[in-house]
């Protein structure tokens, strides 16, 4: 066994853990599920992750130099050290950690039962990563009351339970498991980000008490109705891609929402968005939408993705003066005059229109798009000037 030891010399320099996400859009992926990129995961986390490729975002927060200062050989273990150990056995890893370790990774260890690992001694742990194991039950975490971030991504968990003592938890990820219900989260009143991607959840429920929640990720489940979100007054990002939703509804109270991703569903009409006055990014590709409408109050939109729908005309978007990206590829737009609707968007830099009749029947497609919208920097997947 060998051990890498890292430390941060000044506790005051600790930065909040930040997440960035990329949305899977045409040309990259299309299920509408977001993917997080962890800034501080320097272990053998080689996941490309669905939806993570080709992201233009870069990680933020403390610099790599600050995070990766190596402890001088033979030096004493500093308080609150971040320790990454690579052992074949999860129990051995735990035994080698100092009791005040605050960031613990037990990814891909073959853990089946948390009760066998001995986590109860790590009472100061703030971040606990248990991704890619075979955990079947959430248990034996009662003593970890300092925990702020818990990752149980890609296990075999069927029920959310035994989390009531983790009152300081801010980030919870139980994605890629076997959950059927959202339940037993009432005590987690400080939760800010909840990830439940790729489960078997059929109803949005038991979330009304999350006054601090800013991000909710329910992509790739079995949800048919948008409901029970009224209490999420501080929600900023909502991801519902790759479900079975047929109607945009019950979103009126989410006045702070800036990102709505609802790609790959069964929606046929743009509606129910009038209360989202701060919405900046709307991703609703791969549905059955026939008309661009219902965006009168969404004046802050800078990204609009309506690709792979049944839209025949670019209309009712002329008032979106802050628009920077417009994805309308693979629809049924056939009239060049429709581009006049985008002329007022002086900040527009990216347009996707390929896969429409205007491209298929005109060899001068790119030149005409550029003439109509001279501010463009990118047309489809190609930068202007290339």
TrEMBL record:
Keyword Transferase: no
Entries under SMART domains matching the protein: LRR_SD22, LRR_TYP
Biased composition (Polar residues): 52-63
A Pfam entry, by short name: LRR_4
Major location (coarse): nucleus
Database matches in Gene3D superfamilies: Ribonuclease Inhibitor
Localization terms from the record: Nucleus
Superkingdom, taxonomy of origin: Eukaryota
Keywords for this protein: Leucine-rich repeat, Nucleus, Repeat
Family: Belongs to the SDS22 family.
PANTHER family registered for this protein in UniProt: PROTEIN PHOSPHATASE 1 REGULATORY SUBUNIT 7, PROTEIN PHOSPHATASE 1 REGULATORY SUBUNIT SDS22-RELATED
Protein name: PPP1R7 protein
Species this protein is from: Branchiostoma lanceolatum (Common lancelet)
Native organism taxonomy: Eukaryota, Metazoa, Chordata, Cephalochordata, Leptocardii
Gene from which this protein is expressed: PPP1R7
């Amino acid at each position: 066994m060998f051990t890498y030891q890292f430390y941060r010399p000044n506790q005051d320099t600790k930065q909040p853990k930040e997440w960035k996400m990329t949305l899977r859009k045409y040309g990259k992926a299309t299920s509408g599920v977001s993917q997080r990129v962890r800034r501080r995961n320097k272990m053998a986390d080689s996941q490309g992750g669905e939806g993570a490729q080709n992201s233009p975002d870069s990680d933020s927060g403390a610099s790599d130099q600050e995070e990766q200062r190596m402890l001088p050989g033979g030096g004493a273990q500093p308080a609150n050290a971040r320790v990454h150990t690579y052992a074949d056995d999860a129990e051995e890893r735990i035994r080698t950690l100092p009791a005040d370790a605050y960031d613990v990774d037990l990814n891909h260890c073959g853990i089946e039962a948390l009760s066998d690992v001995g986590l109860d001694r790590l009472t100061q742990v703030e971040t606990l990563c248990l991704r890619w194991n075979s955990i079947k039950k959430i248990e034996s975490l009662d003593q970890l009351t300092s925990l702020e971030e818990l990752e149980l991504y890609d296990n075999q968990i069927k029920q959310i339970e035994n989390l009531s003592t983790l009152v300081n938890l801010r980030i919870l990820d139980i994605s890629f498991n076997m959950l059927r219900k959202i339940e037993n989260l009432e005590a987690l009143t400080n939760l800010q980000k909840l990830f439940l991607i790729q489960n078997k959840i059929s109803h949005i429920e038991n979330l009304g008490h999350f006054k601090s929640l800013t991000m909710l990720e329910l992509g790739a489940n079995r949800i048919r109705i948008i409901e029970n979100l009224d209490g999420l007054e501080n929600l900023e990002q909502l991801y519902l891609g790759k479900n079975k939703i047929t109607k945009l509804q019950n979103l009126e109270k989410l006045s702070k929402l800036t990102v709505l991703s609802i790609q790959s569903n069964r929606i046929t009409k743009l509606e129910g968005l009038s209360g989202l006055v701060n919405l900046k990014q709307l991703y609703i590709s791969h549905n059955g939408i026939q008309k661009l409408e219902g965006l009168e109050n969404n004046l802050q939109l800078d990204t609009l993705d309506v690709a792979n729908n049944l839209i025949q005309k670019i209309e009712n978007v002329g008032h979106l003066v802050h628009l920077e990206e417009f994805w309308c590829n693979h629809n049924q737009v056939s009239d060049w005059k429709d581009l006049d609707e985008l002329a007022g968007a002086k900040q527009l830099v990216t347009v996707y229109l390929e896969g429409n009749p205007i491209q298929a029947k005109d060899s001068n497609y790119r030149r005409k798009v550029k003439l109509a919208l001279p501010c463009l920097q990118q047309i489809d997947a190609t930068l202007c000037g290339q």
